[in-house]
Amino acid sequence: MLVSPSLLAADFANLQKDIEMINRSDADWLHLDVMDGVFVPNISFGFPVLEAVARHCKKPLDVHLMIVEPEKFIRQVQALGAYMMNVHYEACRHLHRTIAEIHEAGMKAAVTLNPHTPVCLLEDIIRDVDMVLIMTVNPGFGGQAFIEHSLDKVRMLREMIERTGSKALIEVDGGVNGKTAPRLAEAGVDVLVAGSYVFGADQPEERIKTLKNL
Ligand code: DX5
Ligand code: ZN
Q1: Active-site entry in 28, 62, 130, 173
Q2: What single string gives the DSSP state of each residue in 46-73?
Q3: Residue 196 CA: which ligand 1 atom is closest?
Q4: pLDDT digits (tens, 9 = 90+) for 118-151
Q5: Confidence tier at 207 by pLDDT (50, 70, 90)
Q6: Which domains does the chain have, with CATH numbers?
Q7: 32, 53 contact by CB (below 8 A)
Q8: pTM to 2 decimals?
Q9: What does pLDDT average to over the chain?
Q10: Strand locations in the chain (E)
């Protein structure tokens, strides 16, 4: 299992400490949640903070843009040296073009689905993306309860990937913890994002290990 801890649940007054923990840990990526107060009803952090994080973090960056018109920021995400750029299906008018532009910028491209967006809408883009991020809560906040129907979505997506020969990874984000993670692994998830489960723990590196071993 790949693990991408979400910095949203870190101590923003002491990010260096949490980034050093991530660098030492078995985490595969660092998940960064950008919010604009328009696409989601919250604002997190923007590029000045991301640039500082990118300077210190040794893990590949998994950037999740919860913003309208994410295509306007491809160059800025590229300049961070990001590994993966996640854009929301609901935020992209020309998703195929945006995915191509992310690839032209040398990054992996992921499409993210809100809880209400059906997996079947990916039928004509699934071969073009490197990853699908299924939101297992409504985006905008950490610490929310896992939406049970997400497990069916993961199974449907796994079936679509196998049927089409797509190479896309399946990532999930929201409400991932010791109870939901094993069920998600069984349903066919490749990458777990976890915020409060990791950063809310006394032994965050142990929690990362627990998820990695699934
Ligand atoms: C929510 C973000 C998540 C968030 C998950 O909109 O996309 O990445 O940090 O938080 P937890 O793991 O606490 O549900
Ligand atoms: Zn996220």
Answers
A1: 173
A2: -HHHHHHHHHH--SPEEEEEESSSGGGG
A3: 13
A4: 999 999 999 999 999 999 999 999 999 999 999 9
A5: very high
A6: 2-212 (3.20.20.70)
A7: yes
A8: 0.98
A9: 98
A10: 2-5, 30-35, 61-66, 84-88, 108-113, 131-135, 169-173, 191-194
Say yes or no: CB of residue 70 within 6 Å of ligand 1. no
pLDDT at 100: 99
Asked if residue 174 has its Cβ within 6 Å of ligand 1, the reply is yes
Q: How many CB atoms lie within 10 A of CB 207?
A: 22
Coil, strand, or helix at residue 214? Answer: coil
Taking the C-alpha atoms of residue 73 and residue 113, their distance in angstroms, rounded to an integer, is 19
pLDDT for position 10 = 98
The rounded distance, in Å, linking the Cα atoms of 192 and 184 is: 8
Rounded average pLDDT over 61-78: 98
Mark whether 33 is an active-site residue. Answer: yes
| β 169-173/191-194 pair status | parallel
* DSSP-assigned letter for residue 36: B
Distance CA(170)–CA(89), nearest Å, equals 15
CA–CA separation, 44 and 36 (whole Å) = 7
**Token code pair at residue 93:** 């008018």
Question: Quick check: CB of 193 below 6 Å from ligand 1?
Answer: yes
The bound ligand whose nearest atom lies closest to the alpha carbon of 207 is 1
pLDDT at site 12: 97
